[in-house]
Every structure is written in structure tokens, then in C-alpha cells.
Amino acid sequence: MHAYDIPENIPFASLMSRLVEVAESLARLDERVKARGFGEGVAARLLYHEACASRLAEGELIHLEDLVLLDGGAYDGPMSPELSSGWETLRVWRKALAGDAGELLRAERPGEADAAALKVVAAPDYFFDPNWDEPGRLAAWRDVLRKSAAYPCLLAAGLVWDAWLTLMPEQRGAWRASLLAALTLRARGATSALLLPLDVGVRHGRYRRASSHGWGLRMAGFLEWVLVASQQSGRELDRLALAREMLALKLKGRRQGSKLPELVDLLVSRPLVSLPMAAKALGVSWTAADKMMRRLGSIPREMSGRQRYKVWAI
After folding, report:
1. Under CATH, which number does the domain 251-313 receive?
2. pLDDT tens, position by position, for the chain (314 residues)?
């Protein structure tokens, strides 16, 4: 019998100041993303960072550049299990961003609308215990999900997150906890414009979860991760807003039907853009894509230092 015990006396006094701080940070971030005309691009861009941070939390190091190029159909390097896992993670988060958060939390495989269409994000040589009792563990987690509706948004997300990591319905599914917490925040309206990249908070935060930690310490650590994730996302938004304002000057006087605005949107929505990616996304030749990049000036920085294989980023 699997169960997750929600404390009868939650230590609100010790958590209250952090709850208020985190709630305010999330509210500011969400409003700022919604107020920007390129909020969808920022939300899409953050998923790449989340996928890399998610796999790093699982002990799998993948390069952001490789993941972006693979996703854009421009990767020509060797494929690895880690990179494949990162790409699957990215695809799951992307589908979640486009879906209904509430429905995804209640899906057959939580977080995925079409579980059959996607592979389990797991190393192919991982040993699975046949007596793990996934249905029983999943039923216990669903009970926590149901009970979390009675709690404030951030605590509900923390309960969903902590219960998943405690019960482990999937033997190799710890990565899913952050997705489910992000979906809970979105379903409750805290981050309606994006899915919070919680593992980015794990990567940059100080807290490291351990099963031996008490519930209060684990929840305080979760709140720290949410705060750091929202702060990191806000900094990325500020940086992109400044770059986009500068790029807008380059769009003045463009001819009707120009694809320069589409190129700017592509640069915002991807951590980097290669020439093949730009040509494919815009439906133009490599030469035309290169000319458009040149017209944008030095704001998109050329990262490779090569003539044949060029990669830009803002």
C-alpha cells in the first residue's frame, strides 16, 4: 500500500514570508510575459533551458547548442542516449505548453496528453523492477493531486512535486515532478503565460533535495527553486526585450512582405539559430537567410566563428 502523508499542521508561520515573496515574483513574471508582444517566443525559448537543466538533474549532460540544432533539423553530430532523452523531454514540455494544464495533470500518464505517441524518457539500459507497482503508486499520487486543490497554489504545486518524488510512480520518472509542478502553477493561474522552468531553478538554486529532509525543509527548498526559476526567467525576458527593441530599429523601412520580422521572432524563440534552421523556418534559401542575418547587424552575435557553419544568438 503506497501513501503520501500531507502534514496535518503545515508550518505556515515559517513558510509564509517565502510564500508571499515567491507569489509576488511569479505574478510579476506572468504579467510581464503577457504584456510583451513576444511572450510566446520567450515561453518557447525557456523550454530549451528547462530540458537541459532537467537532464542535468538526472545526471545527464547535454549541450544546449546540440539540443537546439537537433530540434531544428540542423544537427549533424553523433546521437547519444542523453541527447535523445533531452529531445524527448523538450517535446513533452512543448506539448504541455500547448495543452490544457488541468487535463494534462489528470491524463493517463500525467503531463502527457498522448502518452502512446511519446517514449518514456529513460536510458535504454536502465533496469526496471517488475514489482514496482506503478498503478498503485500512481493512484496514491492522484489522491495527493485531488487533495492539493484545497491548498494555496504554491503549496499545491509543492505537494504535487514532492509526492511524485516520494512515491516515484515511474522508476525513471523523477524528471516529471518539475513538469507536474509547473502544470499545477499554470492550472491555478499563477503562470498562465508560460510553464515555469523549475529545473532551471534547481540548477541555479542552493537547495538540494534529500529524502531524509523533513517535509518543511523540502517545501522551503521547492519554494526557493520556484523563486530562482522566476528570477532567471525574468532576467532572460529583460535581456530579450532590450535586444528586440534594438532589432526593431533594423525593421524600419523594410519592404512589404519582408521576412525579417519572422527572423526576429525566430531568434527570440530559440537560444540560437543556424543558417539551415533559419532557411527552413522562413522558407528561403541559405543565401537569402544569410543576407537577412547580415541586415540585422551585430545584435545577433555569430557564435561559431566559421564561414560555412554559422550560428547566431541574441
Report:
1. 1.10.10
2. 789 999 988 888 889 999 999 999 999 999 999 998 899 999 999 999 999 999 999 999 999 999 999 998 888 888 999 999 999 999 999 999 999 999 999 999 999 987 554 444 444 445 678 889 999 999 999 999 999 999 999 999 999 999 999 999 998 899 999 999 999 999 999 999 999 999 999 999 999 999 899 999 999 999 999 999 999 999 999 999 999 999 988 888 777 778 999 999 999 999 999 988 999 999 999 899 989 999 998 889 888 765 557 889 99
C-alpha cell at 88: 524527448
**Complete DSSP assignment for 47-101:** HHHHHHHHHHHTT----HHHHHHHHTT---S---HHHHHHHHHHHHHHHHHHS-H
- The structural domains of the chain, with segments of one domain joined by +, span 12-123+132-238, 251-313
State pTM to two decimals: 0.91
What CATH number has the domain spanning 12-123+132-238? Answer: 1.10.3290
